[in-house]
């Protein structure tokens, strides 16, 4: 029994490493050849996991071979566009200029009721508001509204929005994020000072503290029901 447990753990780790070597992808974003590799890895792990008499290498070595083949195919597809198009397929335009592309719908096997579902999923109720629909090689359906129905952008209003970027978490569940302090060119003394001014002299009592590109600090203490937003840094010093 212990042997089966240990073998299962080892094969799980091997499968996890094989998937990690393939890169970060969600299941819905896998290309057809990548999906085949995932299925084969699962099958290869299951065979020696259930049979104690089967050596672990019979499962691990084929996994390594699959990962190597995946890497070679991926490298070739990046360097040769025709090969990638043959292997993964090309995007199919299912609607163009507000009109359905019937030939493409039949070629891809996309049913109209299924297409209506994708349109509703995109947040559009009326198909007359849709301009373009594209079926991507990975199976995702992207729906684009007509120009008259798309959201207004700052460029439409001739506005110059402020710089965008990710906020910098500095304290998470009472733990100081020293790497982020360094990235933001901030000091621990400064962090303690602004937290103390916000009413939190002890950083271990802070649930979350982050700094955005406007220099505003979002802070919430443990057990608190509300978060506070205070100006803690001049915007020009937000340089990460």
Task: Describe the protein in words.
By secondary structure, this protein is an alpha+beta fold. The chain folds into three domains: 2-85, no CATH class; 92-149, bsu07140 like domains (CRO Repressor), CATH 3.30.240.20; 168-237, bsu07140 like domains (CRO Repressor, 2-Layer Sandwich). 43% of the residues lie in helices and 17% in strands. It contains eight helices and nine strands. The chain has helices at residues 2-21, 32-50, 57-79, 81-88, 102-108, 112-121, 178-183, 188-197; strands spanning 92-96, 99-100, 130-135, 141-145, 168-172, 175-176, 206-211, 216-221, 228-231. The strands form two sheets. A five-stranded antiparallel β-sheet has the order 6-5-7-8-9. Helix 1 (2-21) runs antiparallel to helix 2 (32-50) and helix 3 (57-79) packs across helix 4. The model has no long low-confidence stretch (mean pLDDT 86).
Number of domain units:
3
Based on DSSP secondary structure assignment, what is the total number of beta strands? 9
Mean pLDDT: 86
Gross geometry: flat
- Spans of 5+ residues with little confidence (pLDDT < 50)? none
Distance between the termini: 53 Å
User: Which structural category fits the helices and strands?
Assistant: alpha+beta
Largest sheet: 5 strands, antiparallel
- Give the helix level as a range of percent: 40-55%
The Cα radius of gyration reads 26 Å
Strand order of the largest sheet: 6-5-7-8-9
Order of helices and strands: HHHHEEHHEEEEHHEEE
Strand content: 15-25%
Count of DSSP H/I helices = 8
């Amino acid at each position: 029994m212990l042997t089966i447990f240990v073998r299962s753990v080892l094969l799980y780790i091997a499968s996890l490493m094989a998937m990690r070597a393939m890169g970060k992808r969600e299941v819905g974003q896998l290309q057809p050849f990548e999906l085949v590799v995932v299925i084969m890895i699962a099958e290869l792990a299951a065979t020696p996991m259930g049979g104690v008499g089967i050596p672990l290498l019979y499962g691990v070595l084929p996994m390594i071979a699959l990962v190597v083949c995946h890497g070679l195919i991926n490298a070739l597809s990046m360097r040769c566009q025709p090969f990638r198009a043959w292997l993964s397929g090309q995007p199919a335009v299912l609607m163009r200029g507000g009109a359905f592309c019937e030939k493409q719908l039949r070629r891809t096997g996309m049913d109209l009721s299924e297409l209506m579902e994708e349109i509703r999923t995109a947040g559009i109720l009326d198909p007359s508001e849709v301009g373009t629909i594209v079926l991507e090689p990975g199976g995702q359906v992207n729906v684009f509204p007509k120009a008259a129905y798309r959201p207004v952008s700052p460029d439409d209003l001739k506005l110059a929005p402020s710089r965008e970027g990710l906020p910098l978490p500095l304290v998470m569940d009472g733990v100081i994020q020293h790497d982020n302090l360094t990235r933001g060119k901030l000091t621990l003394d400064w962090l303690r000072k602004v937290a103390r001014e916000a009413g939190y002299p002890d950083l271990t009592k802070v649930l979350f503290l982050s700094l955005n590109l406007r220099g505003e600090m979002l802070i919430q203490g443990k057990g608190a029901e509300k978060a506070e937003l205070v100006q803690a840094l001049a915007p020009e010093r937000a340089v990460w």
